[in-house]
Amino acid sequence: MTQSTETETSELVLAERHGAVLLLTLNRPERLNAWNIPLQERYFALLDAAEADPGVRVVVVTGAGRGFCAGADMEDLSQLGTVDPDTFGQLPGRPRERPLSFRKPLIAAINGPVAGLGLVQALYCDLRFTTPQAKFTTAFARRGLIAEYGIAWLLPRLVGPSRALDLLMSARVVLGEEALALGLVDRVRPAESLLADALAYAADLAENCSPRSMALIKQQVFQALDSDLPTAVALSTKLMHESFRHPDSAEGVHSYLERRPPRFEPLESA
């Protein structure tokens, strides 16, 4: 790879530190940040680096320009007939749903249109902030495609089966307030304060919540989606007993009693 190509790749997703929060910006604004393999590779590599960096406690992802992500790049889609479907979009060592296994909080600040694969990536995040004007669409049915990249598993768990079928079969456009009412997003903020509000929320997590606790809570929630109540209770009992012996538990209590910010340990390597 030439130096110029490396520079171009590094610019596809920008990384900017805000204390213990890492801001990642999808950066193809001239194409509404349409998703392609180089962008995916850069984004996943940055997630890997953030997970390994003890100084990063929360990640926020947004889009450059007026959109979040318009979905798969149509130039790539036009050539799908000549590509091996078993390898398209697959990176060595990283599954397509890599963001779902990210152990730290991952927050989407959806600043504009989000469609198809872009919507899937937003749903892979733990929380979603958006604006009233942002447009959401699954898009797949209007491109002759199916519910891709696990959205048929994710969407019903967020909005329920009938609403998921509505969004998937019609591929209609939903604006920010309806997205909130449906359960697609968690916060609606004015466009001018969206990113600042998402970063402030992330900073609160980074400053006041145990990285270990948040990672384990994410693990519990995703495992509970496919288990029964007794299994979830048994896991929580095991993890609770382990947490009592971890330094973060004592620090959480002492910081509360001493009326000071907690000093929790960085997340340990998996």
Question: How do you describe this structure in short?
Answer:
With 270 residues, the protein is an alpha/beta fold. The protein has 11 helices and 9 strands.
What would you note in describing this structure?
Helix content is 44%, strand content 13%. The N terminus is likely disordered. The chain is globular and about 55 Å long. The strands form two sheets. A six-stranded mixed sheet has the order 1-2-3-4-6-9, with helices on both faces. A three-stranded mixed sheet has the order 5-7-8. It is of the alpha/beta class and 270 residues long.
Describe how the helices and strands are arranged.
Layout: H1 3-10, E1 13-18, E2 21-26, H2 37-52, E3 58-63, H3 74-77, E4 106-110, E5 114-115, H4 117-124, E6 127-130, E7 135-137, H5 151-159, H6 161-170, E8 174-175, H7 176-182, E9 187-188, H8 194-208, H9 211-224, H10 229-244, H11 247-257
Parallel strand pairs: 2-3, 3-4, 4-6, 5-7, 6-9
Antiparallel strand pairs: 1-2, 7-8
Helix pairs in contact: 5-6, 9-10
Largest sheet: 6 strands, mixed
Q: Can you identify the CATH class of the largest domain?
A: Alpha Beta
Structure annotation, total helices: 11
> Domains counted in the coordinates: how many?
2
Taken from the alpha-carbon principal axes, the silhouette is globular
For CATH, the homologous superfamily of the largest domain is named as: 2-enoyl-CoA Hydratase, Chain A, domain 1
Averaged pLDDT: 91
CATH domain topology of the largest domain = 2-enoyl-CoA Hydratase, Chain A, domain 1
Major sheet: arrangement of strands: 1-2-3-4-6-9
InterPro entries: ClpP/crotonase-like_dom_sf, Enoyl-CoA_hydra/iso, Enoyl-CoA_hydra_C
Protein name: Enoyl-CoA hydratase/isomerase family protein
Family: Belongs to the enoyl-CoA hydratase/isomerase family.
